[in-house]
Design brief:
The complex is a heterodimer of chains A (624) and B (176). Chain A is α+β, with helices and mostly antiparallel strands. Chain A has 14 helices and 29 strands. In chain A, strand 11, helix 3 (160-172) and strand 12 (177-182) form a beta-alpha-beta unit. Chain A is globular, with a radius of gyration of 28 Å. The relative contact order of chain A is 0.11. By secondary structure, chain B is mostly helical. Chain B folds into two domains: 7-66, Helix Hairpins, CATH 1.10.287.110; 92-175, Up-down Bundle (Monooxygenase), CATH 1.20.1280. Chain B starts with 6 loop residues before the first helix and ends with a helix. The mean pLDDT of chain B is 91. Classes of the chains: A alpha+beta (624), B mainly alpha (176). The A-B interface holds A 149, 178-179, 219, 222, 224, 315, 318-319, 322, 378-381, 390, 392-394, 418-424, 479, 481-482 and B 29, 32-33, 36-38, 41-42, 52-53, 55-57, 59-60, 62-63, 168, 171-172, 175-176.
């Protein structure tokens, strides 16, 4: 066993620091960041990659692959390989518009959508949980232990169902969610703290599938969101889709197989990415039918076919400014967030609208996760450990909350852009003599008619004491917490009876579905634990290989040829098994290498002691 | 935090219609820094509930004081007046003036006359400003305004509500 000797004057790692992380669960890719040494930093996988593609594949043998390994299956196994699952969170089939544009098979259901895969029906919450689990492992490997808490980001314009679904996914992945944080707010924190920004800033966040714009006032450590607007179904994916449609038009292709749709979407995306740096992009693919597509897309053409999408982002920008009661002249800077803001036509449109070039001195893919990590670090209680002033986040609820009244109209209870947390009470009465129950329908949105708003939930109040019509006074309290999540309570005022509230979330998961998910996740927990043990052992193997190679370079002369050959052989075998998936074989190899190097470690120790006794400076010895 | 206190002293402000917005913003932020749920994420359920209720109360108070219509409504209620309702009456001259302005707006909208819409918008801003100034005079001292003054104030708050709604509708239309 090799001895690790720490430098005498390096400070002991602070025991009280807790492990916290910020997770950006994105449409196209996801990532995790933390502050292990008091500085926010993105965490990489074993290959040094930051971005984890938000792609999950359910394999033939019940195996689940996430990220880069799942990517190649997008075109080959479209029905079982799910991308952009964020677009499905908290959504019903009717929300999706043309459900056929997705290469999935849908289960017939009225609540949140469910996908038919080879391992059975899967809902977006379960699929997202797989992505979160992968990030959780990554963070726990890098931080050296279980996470105490995380902050997960959501688009500011996410409604209640989408937020609930995200929190549910995090819980299913075994994470302790300290807070759901709005993505533009997270970006503002990372940017603001890093640049010492003061004044009114706009965050323009165009992600893979969502668009948010937030107006914030940054003033001496307080990040106050003045207004937020957006479109939770507009993002970089739509630009890909425009290119896809352009390909279909240009080639006059017949209806395509799911695999070919995926292939062309991938080709479209890479053309879009090429145009961020070049004037033209090749569009080439060979379809499953043998048909060849060979086209060239110019920047001008791309700008042309996506013009209405760029324009579509400006309406929420104008609304946010008006809600914040601000003019263009009062905006100090515009921060661009999200990979899609790399498109030149976006940068140009933003510059033209705000009459100033946007701020691009940050990584638009990483800034949200970094901001979430800073917030997680503070919430988990590490704040006192790090230098830097205290700061505070004040956020708003993006959408108005209302109730259905007579004639299908909406009675607004909470206006959009109200500061959260908030509470609002409303009194109701009974309509008939002896009435003991009341049905209430909660909607979210800005329109006047219930049909044009999003149905959040239906509540049934039961247990109202029988009285004459109009005598009961039922006070219903709506509460939006700091995560932006709604809850409801009710009480009959004259008698003090608490009416029970039965919540039926319109696009949430039913009780039975949650129970099934928990059961399944317990069954999977065994597999998860094995996967986790494998990763842990792989990291251990990497460390041992590195340490031994370092020691061999320093003190190789302590070994004779036979001894050296034995260690080399053990190392080679270990390195080989490190690449495989066999946990037991790897463990064996690890133990073997440890044994093979035990004698060597002893001799190194002896040499250090001898050196120390022959009068060399102590600190230069132990540093070896 | 005393959740029964008057909103003005909660932010260390005098009970006036005219508002020092900078002072309100600053004490709001200082108050939230003390009571926000983020300060008790690791606390027990009681601490969390209290933080939630305190912060919600402060947010509500802030929203009401910041808004020119709600602030007027709140001051009226402080003087024992009924909250603004749906069956309010406004002078017929004001109403017919408003009706006319809305027709002008619709016409300009149909004709795509952006210049006329902007002119209308700025005249609405001036009208709002005048109502706010009148309210600042009516609620300017420590004494309770007379009954006549309160009735006058109510008319101004109602008119302001009318004008604000119109300006918001117009703005929203012009954004799209």
């Amino acid at each position: 066993m090799l001895l690790q000797i720490t430098e005498p004057d390096s400070p002991a790692p602070p025991r009280e620091r807790k492990r916290a992380a910020g997770i950006d669960l994105g449409t196209t890719h996801s990532l995790v960041a933390s502050m292990p040494q008091g500085v926010a930093t993105v965490l990489t996988d074993e290959k040094g990659r930051v971005l984890l593609p938000s792609v999950v594949r359910f394999g033939e043998h019940g195996d689940i692959t996430v990220g880069h390994e799942a990517l190649p299956w997008l075109a080959r196994d479209a029905a079982n390989t799910i991308a952009s699952v964020k677009r499905l969170m908290g959504r019903g089939l009717t929300d999706l518009g043309d459900a056929r544009q997705f290469p999935y098979q849908w289960a017939q259901t009225t609540g949140m959508v469910r996908l038919k895969t080879r391992v059975g029906e899967k809902n977006p919450v379960e699929i997202s949980a797989e992505i979160l689990k992968a990030l959780r492992w990554r963070a726990e490997m890098q931080l050296g232990g279980a996470l105490d808490g995380v902050v997960v980001t959501v688009p500011a314009y996410f409604d209640d169902a989408q937020r609930q679904a995200t929190k549910e996914a995090a819980r299913l992945a075994g994470l302790n969610v300290l807070r759901l944080l709005n993505e533009p707010t997270a970006a503002a924190v990372a940017y603001g703290l890093d640049h010492g920004a003061e004044g009114v800033y706009v965050v323009y966040d165009l992600g893979g599938g969502t668009f948010d714009v937030s107006v914030l006032r940054l003033s001496r450590g307080v990040f106050e969101v003045l207004a937020t607007h957006g479109d939770s179904a507009l993002g970089g994916d739509d630009f890909d889709h425009r290119v896809f449609c352009w390909i279909l038009e240009a080639t006059g292709l017949p209806p395509l197989a799911a695999e070919d749709v995926r292939l062309l979407l991938t080709v479209a995306r890479s053309a879009k990415e090429t145009l961020a740096r070049h004037e033209t992009a090749p569009v080439a693919a060979t379809l499953s039918t043998g048909h060849k597509v060979e086209l060239t897309l110019t920047a001008e053409m791309f700008t042309d076919i996506t013009r209405h999408l760029v324009q579509k982002t400006l309406t929420p920008v104008k609304r946010a400014l008006r809600d914040a009661k601000l003019t263009l002249e009062e905006i100090k800077g515009v921060v661009l967030v999200g990979g899609a803001t790399r498109m030149p036509q976006i940068r140009q449109a933003v510059a033209e609208f705000f009459k100033q070039p946007p701020l691009v001195n940050l990584n638009p893919d990483e800034v949200v996760a970094l901001g979430a990590a800073i917030q997680a670090n503070a919430l988990v209680g590490n704040r006192g450990l790090d230098s830097g002033e205290d700061w505070l986040l004040l956020d708003v609820t993006p959408l108005s909350l209302g109730l259905e009244t007579m004639g299908g109209l909406v009675e607004k209870i909470v206006p959009r852009n109200a500061g959260i947390p908030l509470m609002r009470a409303q009194e109701f009465t009974t309509f008939k003599d002896g009435q003991t129950a009341l049905a209430i329908h909660v909607v979210q949105g800005e329109r006047e008619k219930v049909a044009d708003c999003r149905s959040l939930a239906r509540f049934e109040l039961r247990g109202i004491p029988p009285m004459v019509a109009g005598a009961a006074r039922i006070r219903i309290t709506f509460q939006i917490d700091a995560d932006g999540l709604l809850s409801v309570s009710a009480r009959e005022q004259t008698t003090g009876v608490e009416a029970s509230v039965i919540v039926k979330p319109s696009y949430g998961l039913g009780e039975s579905e949650i129970a099934r998910m928990l059961e399944e996740s317990l069954a999977h927990a065994r597999n998860d634990m094995q996967a986790r043990a494998l990763t842990e052992t792989q990291v251990e193997a990497d460390q041992l290989i590195e340490l031994t190679q370092h020691a061999l370079a320093e003190d190789g002369s302590l070994l004779n040829d036979a001894e050296r050959a034995a260690i080399d052989a053990a190392l080679e075998e270990l390195a080989q098994r490190r690449q495989g998936q066999e946990l037991n074989a790897l463990r064996l190899s690890l133990a073997k290498t440890n044994r093979a190097t035990a004698e060597f470690a002893g001799r190194r120790m002896d040499r250090s002691v001898q050196k120390a006794l022959t009068g060399k400076r102590f600190d230069s010895v132990v540093q070896d | 935090m005393d959740r029964k206190a008057d909103f003005f002293p909660l932010f260390g402000l005098p009970r006036r219609y005219a508002l020092d917005e900078t002072a309100l913003n600053e004490s709001y932020r200082a108050l939230l820094a003390r009571v926000h749920p983020d300060t008790v994420v690791l606390g027990d359920a009681t601490a969390k509930r209290r933080a939630m209720e305190d912060a919600a109360y402060a947010n509500d108070a802030y929203r009401i004081l910041k808004d020119p219509v709600r602030r007027g409504d709140y001051l009226l209620q402080c003087c024992g007046e009924a909250p603004l309702g749906t069956n309010e009456t406004l002078p017929i001259e004001f109403l017919s003036e408003q009706l006319e302005a809305r027709e002008v707006a619709d016409e300009a909208w149909r004709a795509d006359d952006y210049g006329r819409l902007e002119a209308l918008q700025s005249s609405l801003l001036t009208a709002q400003q005048q109502r706010r100034e009148a309210l600042a005079v009516l609620f300017s001292g420590d004494e309770m305004p007379s009954e006549i003054a309160l009735a006058e104030a109510r008319q101004h708050v109602l008119a302001l509500q009318f004008l604000t709604r119109f300006a918001d509708d117009l703005g929203e239309k012009m954004d799209t």
